[in-house]
Amino acid sequence: MTDYREHYYQSPDGLTLYAKIYNPNQKDQTILCMHGLTRNSADFDAVAEHLSEHYRVISVDQRGRGNSEWDPDINHYTPLNYVQDMWALLDGLHIDQVALIGTSMGGLMSIMMGAEAPNRIMGIVLNDIGPQIESKGLERIKNYIGQDNSYNSWQHLADITKEIHGQVFPNYRNEDWLKMAKRTGCVGEDGMIRMNYDPALAKPVHVGQKAAIPLDLWSSFDALKGKKILTIRGELSDILSIDVLDKMARNHKGLKTHTVPNEGHAPMMDDKATLAVIDLWAEQVFGGN
Questions:
Q1: Average pLDDT of every residue of the chain
Q2: CATH number for the domain including 240?
Q3: Is residue 14 a part of any domain in this protein?
């Protein structure tokens, strides 16, 4: 397994945040990986290890997740604040230009970052997300996030995870559910296992704060013209519809797409076919082809 360097840094409002830096000595070609709403940097372990053979890869824990500090003000749990955290990370590491891989919420952040500072963003992978989110999928997510439950074993959490996401990953075996449980959970001081995020981050989503889940980013997406964009969609996705993907392709003539069969929201991007299309995207981004 490829080693990574742990990196702690300060957010603009003083939180201590965490990132993993793979292949830290590679200075010119950097890929920043940003996870979904309740996830953390562990989702990118396989992708980061694979890409770090050629590139510097940074995967982050957004505020309130993983090893990053929880925010005492839940109103700060918004993509706009997360984006500012990412600029602080990049500025602190003196990274002027970067390519982005964003899953779900991380993809929304990627669109926002590309529109805000187009000269700094070299290319984007959007993993099962687009400028418009399907309401059915959003309601499904609202049904399970923020529950402050505890579990007495990893198998217990794996079983609950299967109950919630079984339709999304119909081909997963028990070992796959255990892996997902260990990516998304953590052991508390009492020895019980809990989800590895601040349950309070769900509150702005539940009450429908527009800043928590931006539902229409078409104008920002349209500002990405000329960028090398790869959109990955799970065949069973209820977040990124085929109609939205088709509209994205019409609006962005250079858009490349890849569908992951028998998976929904959001593909783990660790299968050979998906890694191959990500490799091609990275070669085009950094090679200028």
A1: 93
A2: 3.40.50.1820
A3: yes
